[in-house]
User: Fold this.
Amino acid sequence: MKAVYSPLHARHDGGFELYRGQLVPTFETPDRAEIIRAAIAAAGHELVQPREFPESRLLGVHDGEFVEFLRGAHARWQSEGRQGHVIPSGFPARGLRQDRRPSGISGSLGYYAFDASTPIVAGTWDAVLAAARSAMTAAALVAEGERAAYALCRPPGHHAARSTYGGYCYLNNAALAAQYLRDAGHRRVTILDVDYHHGNGTQEIFWEREDVQFVSLHGDPETEYPWFLGYADERGAGPGEGFTLNLPLPAGTAWDAYAAALQTALGAITRYDPESLVVSLGVDTFVSDPISSFKLESRHYPLIGGLLAGLRLPTVLVQEGGYAVAEIGENVAGVLGAFAD
Ligand code: SP5
Ligand code: ZN
Assistant:
């Protein structure tokens, strides 16, 4: 299949995240994308560059002032004489005001970010925009008739919501792909999120919408990031009630229980009867992922691909997480390969 890739991803590099009491280099590194690129090229997928899009496309999913904040945050941090990377240090938790958007840099950061693991470095915006364009290009290819297309997005996107960022995510690539398909005339679109972590941003963006179904398999937020969303009782609201489905699974989940939950997800998608599918494709469900706790093995990713392809829907696959770098290429290529057969 066509795989959309931009070398601009590599400009997002060198950041540190707060992890268990220490500032450590981010797990989300440029070599992830380069290893995926090599593996899918070796498997015969055709690499294509992202297209240009008017930036107004971003506003179908994101708040305009949020986008401007992300674009300018690093330059502003530097112009105020600060060193290092842009990392927030305080958030509007319970009891603090959430209706104020402070004008200062620290208050703005706390307002827009929801964790301290998502640094902004000098090249972050270039990479973020390239990833968003990659997802929309893959959606355009599918809207134009491709059976499936893959966007090698880096940084990932599913934790980013309308006006918040975190979880290594800045703009929501999968949501932009789904909105692109809606704007191209697909009446109903499903986003299936198989990343280890709940796609809280995607869920929030489509929470009150009936035209985009959100279905997610993920580590139980009682113990797993992002902790504050992704529970089974979250089902959407207003016109969107019943169009969000969360299937949290316990740490340690291996293939049999995972496959059963995936069958439940596929059943819900079939009942919704969408015109196309967007897959938030994280492979941090892999047994040796350094920050996750499922036990899938490399031989299981072609089985996941086969089950997804079996829906027989035009499909956009969008790269999300996966931090076991040595195996990330094989695992992603395993999913993609099932669509060729
Ligand atoms: C896109 C994506 O996969 N983002 C993940 C961001 C996770 N960042 C915080 C990780 C905290 C992990 N806690 C370790 C729990 C070990 N069981
Ligand atoms: Zn993840």
Summary: The pocket of zinc ion (ligand 2) is lined by residues 195-197, 282, 284, 320-321 (CB under 6 Å). The chain has a mean pLDDT of 97.
